[in-house]
């Protein structure tokens, strides 16, 4: 009969390694699903149409042209942007289009240097036209304190304008690339290729397989050691 202490050691071995096998398998499946999600995201972006003065929600990655007026007094700045080694901010200005719809336009990079004085970007008045890529609103990363500090934002979000202007017409923002009031473009769509997620999936499954082998080989040795 196996002593209780040895039996507990034997059981603990299998429980520990079984958990590692399950974890590796689940993480591999998660990365595989992420690869499918990225394929869909890339396909959606590549098939997104060019739209002029749209009145329906734009697709992710759509090339949009807007005509309207900037609400210059409501400009805010996305903090801590770096372009070509220069420190600055991204200029965020709401725009009311010719249909009365409210859009948020990310107008580009403004160099400020390391000082923390409130940024100031010149904004054209009257009717303007801007063209850029549409990005649907996304959840940001962790925040350390309030998102807004004066006229600066830690994260790109629609919420800071809503108490004053109300809801934007569509959940997202236009990354302007050319047109009136557009500064140095800095934003690029960041989409990890699906192949990388597939590679991660096989890495996790490989680790799960290795853990399974260790579990059985070590288990056989433990069984021999605990045999009377």
TrEMBL record:
It comes from the Bacteria. The keyword Cell membrane applies. The keyword Nucleotide-binding does not apply. Keywords: Cell membrane, Membrane, Transmembrane, Transmembrane helix. GO terms for cellular component: plasma membrane. Pfam families: SURF1 (PF02104). The chain crosses the membrane at residues 12-32, 202-222. Its main location: membrane. It is found in: Cell membrane; Membrane. It is a multi-pass membrane protein. Belongs to the SURF1 family. This is SURF1-like protein. It comes from Vreelandella sp. SM1641.
């Amino acid at each position: 009969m196996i002593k209780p202490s040895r039996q507990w050691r034997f059981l603990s071995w299998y429980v520990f390694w079984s958990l590692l096998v399950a974890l590796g398998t689940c993480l591999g499946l998660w990365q595989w699903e992420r690869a499918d999600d990225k394929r869909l995201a890339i396909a959606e972006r590549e098939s997104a149409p060019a739209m002029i003065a749209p009145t329906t929600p734009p697709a992710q990655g759509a090339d949009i042209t807007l005509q309207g007026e900037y609400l210059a007094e409501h400009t805010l700045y996305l903090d801590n942007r770096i372009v070509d080694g220069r420190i600055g901010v991204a200029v965020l200005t709401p725009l009311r289009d010719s249909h009365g719809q409210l859009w948020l336009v990310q107008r580009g990079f403004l160099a400020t240097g390391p000082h923390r004085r409130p940024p100031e970007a010149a904004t054209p008045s009257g009717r303007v036209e801007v063209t850029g890529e549409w990005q649907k609103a996304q959840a940001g990363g962790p925040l350390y304190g309030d998102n807004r500090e004066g006229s600066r934002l830690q994260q790109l979000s629609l919420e800071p304008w809503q108490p004053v202007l109300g809801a934007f017409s569509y959940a997202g923002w236009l990354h302007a690339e050319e047109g009136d009031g557009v500064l140095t473009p800095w934003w690029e769509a960041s989409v990890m290729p699906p192949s990388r997620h597939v590679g991660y999936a096989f890495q996790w499954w490989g680790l799960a397989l290795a853990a399974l082998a260790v579990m059985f080989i070590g288990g056989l040795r433990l069984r021999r050691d605990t045999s009377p």
